[in-house]
Amino acid sequence: MDRHLGARAAGRARRSGARPGGDRAAACRHLDRDGEGLATSRPVWHVGIDKTQVGADEVEESARRLAEAAGTDPAGYAASVAAAGPEAFVRLITYRQSDEEGDSLVAATEEIPGAVALDATQVLGPTRTFAQPLLGTVGEVTAELVDSDPERYALGDVVGLSGLQSAFDDQLRGEPGLRVSAVDPDTGEGSELLDREGVEPEPLQVTLDTDLQELAEEVLADVGPASALVALQPSTGDVLALANGPGSEGTSTALAGQYPPGSTFKIASALALLREGLTPESTVRCEPSLVVDGYEFTNVTGYPEAALGDIPLVTAMANSCNTALIGERDRIPMEELAQAARDLGIGAVWEMPVTAFSGSVPPEEAASQTEHAASLIGQGSVLASPAAMAAVAASVAEGGPLVPRVVLDQEVPEPEGGLSTEEADGLRTMMRAVVTEGSASMLADNPGEPVLAKTGTAEFGTQDPPQTHVWMVAVQGDLAVAIFVEEGEFGSTTVGPLMDAFLTEAVG
User: Fold this and answer.
1) Which residues make Cβ contacts (< 8 Å) with residue 44, sequence separation at least 6?
2) Residues pairing with 419 in the sheet
3) Among 68, 113, 296, 481, which residue is least crowded by beta carbons within 10 Å?
4) 3-class DSSP assignment, residue 398
5) Hey, what long-range contacts does 370-374 have (CB within 8 A, 24 or more apart)?
């Protein structure tokens, strides 16, 4: 379309511009780690009311009928249709043409006056949920964006609205070409004033493995509460899968969630004990309960009696004895616990292109005796995201902290701190015992290399008994995985089967 600038007696300037190689919706924009397309142009149905095809006296009834057929709010949609102009198409919902759930609604448009299903394309991932909070969304520019930068945006532009689509919008959109001419209004003859070539959009290659990402989403598909699965490659820090379950309702639980990690954090507490001279075979005391400053700490319900009393540290870790770790609190000042956590990547600077949380441990001056005790078992004010706990597991596998990355060849900050060979070996020994003799025994017969793991449960809320967040982290070869469910029973019973299903298929 031509845009005319300042028609004058001496002539007028005319400019036209088009994106080289087609618009954003026509091109592939995200590639997986193997260079295969992820977010590409895919056929969709835009279902809504075309007000030019229905009488004014029928439009409200049509809008209500269409919304009812779609299972959405009839009154709200009818109000939106009424507020639109007399020639407007008011979209109700968009379906992928490959999604059978949209077929009945498309068919219903044939019976509702003014209802239409427009055949269109939209930049989308392989499935509706495929890494959606990470990859982000594309759509028409908002009025707020146009107002904030009118030189860059114009109404009708297609831009990245969230996630990587927004963070790398310039790269993914390219830049339109521009031609400006001066045209004599009498003769129609003109001269070219400016001819600027556009910049081709460049695809963004992410670290995701398509097969593992689809598997991760399949594993979480039937989980009701908010949930997440993050899989990293320890040797590179690449995020191979980053899935949020349906209960997360589109939010990035995997990257941005902030939850107490429960007993998965005992990996950091165990590291602090190793630095105090203990070994996996050192004796610690596991009591049924322990009172700290008036607060009673207990072990998880069903804790085995055979693992009470004077036991090796490796046994305490395998069975996740809370009182054994809390009983050693004098050996582990908060400052040393926080340092051990940092050396496993908790609280690291990631510089992610999207919102992400690497975890936090309360400073020494903020911790009471009770807070100190709770921190040793991953509760209190200790917080982490599933991605952060996957990085902890990967750090044990790699023998030092790493910074996860979601864009291939992305430069990431150099991690601080590290583990000695003896420390890494000690943590691996204890995480292996969790599988061979403890709470992750369901992973003992998994195919492939030996699995290392740690389960976790963290209480929250005011109910009696309290609700629990449940976790598990695992390492198998060059794969580190964290799975989180916002509300469940135990890490072993709620998350264990999910981890088993993921590792079995991923390795097999």
Assistant:
1) 94, 95, 96, 97, 120, 121, 122, 124
2) none
3) 296
4) helix
5) 370/292, 370/293, 370/294, 370/295, 372/329, 372/334, 373/292, 373/293, 373/295, 373/297, 373/326, 373/329, 374/297
Coil, strand or helix at 132: helix
Q: Which two tokens stand for residue 33?
A: 């780690």
Q: Tell me how far apart the alpha carbons of residues 328 and 376 are, in angstroms, rounded to a whole number.
A: 9
Query: Phi and psi for 148 in degrees, rounded to 5?
Result: -75, -30
Residues 6+ apart with CB under 8 A from 244: 129, 132, 133, 220, 226, 227, 228, 250, 251, 252, 253, 254
The b/e string for 474-493 (b: 16+ C-beta within 10 A; e otherwise) is bbbeebbbbbbbbbbebbbe
Alpha-carbon gap, residue 472 to 262, rounded angstroms: 10
The stretches of 366-450 forming alpha helices (DSSP H) are 369-376, 386-398, 421-436
Whole-angstrom distance, CA of residue 419 vs CA of residue 410: 24
Task: Decide: 77 and 68 in contact? Cβ < 8 Å.
Answer: no
What percent of the chain clears pLDDT 90, i.e. is strictly above it?
A: 69
Backbone angles phi, psi at 475, to 5 degrees: -130, 135
Out of 127-131, 132-136, 155-159, least confident range: 155-159
Whether pLDDT at 17 is above 60: no
CB neighbourhood size of 305 (10 A):
7
Does 486 have pLDDT greater than 50?
A: yes
Q: How far apart are CA 254 and CA 387, in angstroms?
A: 6
Which one, of 390, 418, 393, lies nearest residue 405 by Cα?
Answer: 390
